[in-house]
Write a structure and sequence with these properties.
single chain; mainly beta; Immunoglobulin-like; six-stranded mixed sheet; 3 helices; 44 strands
C-alpha cells in the first residue's frame, strides 16, 4: 500500500512499514521503518470471568479476569485504592473485617498500552461465621518430663481465624493459662524437665477475623506427665532385650561393615516389628507399682503393651515381666527414618522399668539404638561380622560405650555362674567346669550362660577371631597401677567395639587393675588353672589366652 498523508492506521501483525519525507525542493529524507508485532497490535480489553458482587466481612474470595481483545504482559490490582501484590489475571481477595463495601479494580498492560480499568463493587455483609473446632489428634496423650507431645485441632467455617492454646489444671476450657507463642493449629507441649508426675489439660480457642465473632474452644486434651525416669535413682533387677538394630540398607563397608556380612544379623521391621524386653526383679528388697515408660522422641515406636504389663501391687522377688515394644514397619524402608544412619546418627529409644522401692521410685533403663550400620560388633573371621552387646553385662546401658565412665565397668563373674559375684554369686571355681560351654546338647547357649535372650558368651575361638581380624587401639588414660578403680581407659577393636579396661576382682570384693588390663570370659571351661578369656593390658597385646582361676572377670555377650 502507499499513502501520502502524515499518519496512517494499520492493523496487520507482522508487516513492516517504511516512510520518507520529501520537502518543497524535492529532497527526500532517510527512510523510517516500523514492524507491527505478531503478538498483538491492540490494547488489552478486559472483562470479569470469575466474580461475585457480595461477600461477608473477612471472606477470602477468588477473582479472575479474561481478555476480550489483545494480549497482556502484566496486571495491576487494587482494593479500595491500595495496590495489591498480584500481577497475573487472577488473585484471591481478602475483604476487610468491617465495613459495608469494597471496590476491586484491575487493568492489564501490553506493548501497545494499558487497558481500561474494570471495577467491581462488592457489597459486604456482617455475617461472620462461627468456627467449628475439632481435635485432629487423640485427646488422651502422655509424655515424660522434658519431652514434647503434639496436639492439633481442625477448623471448619474459619475466616482469617487466629489460635491460642492454653494449659489448665482442670478439664475445662476456661480459666487456663495462655501458652506463649502457641498460636497455630498445632501445639507441642513440653513439661519442664523437673516436672513431677501428674496431669495437665490443654485446649485451644479459635477466633475468626471477621465481626461480629464468637471465640470457640476446642475439646480438652488430657496429657499424662510422667516424671523423667533419667532423674530417678538406679534400681536393682535386670532389664534385657535386643538393644541395637541394623536395617542393612546402605553404608556398605568402612566402619559399618559390608552389607553382605551384615545380612545374617539385620532386622527387617516389615516382618519382625515386635521385640520383647524382659525385666527380672531383684531377689530381695521391697518392690511395688512396676510400670514401663518408653521415650521415643523421633517416632520409631508404633505401640507397646506397657499399660497391660504394669504391676500395680507388690512385685514378687525375681518376678519376670516381659514388655513388648512394636516398632513401625516402615523403619526398614529405603529413604525412611532409619535409612543411611550410621552409629553416631542412630535413632535412640529409651525404655525404663520403674518401681517403688519402699521409699522412692527407682528405674532400670535400656537404651535402644536403631541404625543403618552394623551394631557394636567386630569381625570374628575374614568377612564374618558379629554383633556384640555395646556394654559389659551389668553396666549402665544409657552411657556412651565409647567414652570412659564408671558405670561402664559392669559386674564381675566367676566362670560357670549364672549370678555375678557382684550380686552374691560364687567366687571360686575348679578345673573342668563347663557350665557355659556350647555342646552337642546345648549348641547355641548353655543353661547357665548369663547373657540375655538372643546373646551368649563368646567362645575362646571367637575371641581369638576378634583379636586376629580387627585393629586394636588403646583409648583414654592407661596405667601400670594395680590399685586404680576409677575407669579412664578403653580398648577398641575395629571401629565399632569398645571394651573398658575393667581390671578384675578377687574374692568377690577387691577390685583392682582398672586401666591396667581386662579379661573377658569365654564360654569354654577352665583347664590347667586358666580360664579362657579375651585379655589385653597396658603392656601387652590382646590375646585369647585367659586368666587365673582366682579372678572374677567381665562378661561381654555376643549375638547368637
Amino acid at each position: 500500500m502507499s499513502d501520502t498523508t502524515q499518519t496512517i492506521t494499520v492493523d496487520t501483525p507482522g508487516v513492516t512499514y517504511t516512510a520518507t519525507v520529501t520537502n518543497a525542493t524535492g529532497c527526500v529524507s532517510a527512510p523510517a521503518t516500523k514492524t507491527i508485532p505478531l503478538e498483538g497490535s491492540t490494547v488489552p480489553v478486559l472483562d470479569w470471568k470469575t466474580t461475585t458482587a457480595t461477600a461477608s466481612n473477612g471472606d477470602k474470595i477468588f477473582y479472575e479476569t479474561t481478555l476480550l481483545a489483545g494480549t497482556a504482559t502484566s496486571y495491576e490490582w487494587t482494593q479500595d485504592g491500595t495496590k495489591l501484590s498480584a500481577t497475573t489475571s487472577s488473585t484471591t481477595i481478602t475483604f476487610p473485617a468491617t465495613g459495608t463495601s469494597s471496590i476491586i479494580k484491575v487493568k492489564a498492560t501490553n506493548p501497545c498500552g494499558t487497558s481500561a480499568e474494570i471495577t467491581k463493587t462488592v457489597v459486604l455483609s456482617p455475617l461472620c461465621p462461627t468456627p467449628t473446632v475439632t481435635a485432629a489428634t487423640a485427646t488422651t496423650l502422655s509424655t515424660v518430663a522434658g519431652i514434647g507431645v503434639a496436639a492439633k485441632v481442625n477448623v471448619a467455617s474459619g475466616n482469617q481465624q487466629t489460635y491460642q492454646w492454653y494449659t489448665n489444671t482442670t478439664a475445662a476450657t476456661t480459666g487456663g493459662t495462655a501458652i506463649t507463642g502457641a498460636t497455630s493449629a498445632t501445639v507441642t507441649y513440653t513439661p519442664a524437665t523437673t516436672a513431677a508426675a501428674g496431669t495437665v489439660y490443654l485446649y485451644c480457642v479459635v477466633t475468626n477475623g471477621c465481626t461480629p465473632t464468637t471465640p470457640v474452644a476446642s475439646p480438652v486434651f488430657t496429657v499424662t506427665v510422667t516424671a523423667n525416669p533419667a532423674a530417678l535413682t538406679l534400681g536393682s533387677g535386670t532389664f534385657a532385650g535386643k538393644t541395637c538394630f541394623d536395617i542393612n540398607k546402605s553404608n556398605d563397608g568402612a566402619n559399618c561393615g559390608t552389607t553382605v556380612a551384615r545380612t545374617a544379623t539385620m532386622t527387617n521391621f516389615a516382618t519382625l516389628p515386635a521385640q520383647p524386653y524382659v525385666f527380672t526383679a531383684s531377689a530381695t528388697g521391697v518392690k511395688s507399682n512396676l510400670r514401663f515408660v518408653v521415650i521415643d522422641e523421633l517416632g520409631a515406636v508404633q505401640s507397646t503393651d506397657a499399660d497391660t504389663k504394669a504391676v500395680p501391687g507388690t512385685v514378687a522377688n525375681s518376678q519376670v515381666v516381659t514388655l513388648t515394644v512394636t516398632y513401625k514397619t516402615t523403619l526398614s524402608d529405603v529413604g525412611g527414618l532409619i535409612y543411611g544412619r550410621t552409629t553416631d546418627q542412630a535413632v535412640n529409644v529409651k525404655i525404663y522399668a520403674i518401681y517403688f522401692d519402699g521409699s522412692k521410685d527407682v528405674s532400670v533403663p535400656l537404651n535402644i539404638k536403631i541404625q543403618d550400620c552394623a551394631c557394636c560388633g567386630a569381625y570374628i573371621a575374614a568377612g564374618v561380622w558379629k554383633n556384640f552387646m555395646c556394654h559389659n553385662l551389668g553396666a549402665d546401658q544409657t552411657l556412651d560405650p565409647k567414652v570412659p565412665a564408671q558405670g561402664l565397668l559392669g559386674k564381675y563373674w566367676v566362670y560357670g555362674q549364672k549370678v555375678s559375684v557382684t550380686d552374691g554369686g560364687n567366687f571360686r571355681l575348679d578345673n573342668g567346669n563347663t557350665a557355659w560351654a556350647r555342646t552337642a546338647a546345648y549348641p547355641v547357649k548353655a543353661p547357665n550362660d548369663p547373657c540375655p535372650d538372643g546373646y551368649h558368651v563368646p567362645t575362646k575361638a571367637e575371641w581369638a577371631g576378634v583379636v586376629a581380624n580387627n585393629t586394636f587401639v588403646r583409648v583414654g588414660t592407661w596405667t601400670s597401677s594395680a590399685t586404680q578403680t576409677v575407669l579412664t581407659a578403653m580398648a577398641k577393636f575395629g571401629e565399632q567395639l569398645y571394651f573398658p579396661a575393667a581390671g578384675y576382682m578377687l574374692s568377690g570384693a577387691n577390685l583392682g587393675y582398672v586401666n591396667n588390663n581386662a579379661n573377658y570370659l569365654a564360654a569354654d571351661g577352665p583347664l590347667n588353672n586358666v580360664v579362657p578369656a579375651l585379655n589385653f593390658g597396658t603392656s601387652y597385646a590382646p590375646s585369647a589366652s585367659g586368666g587365673g582361676l582366682a579372678g572374677q572377670f567381665s562378661v561381654r555377650c555376643m549375638e547368637q
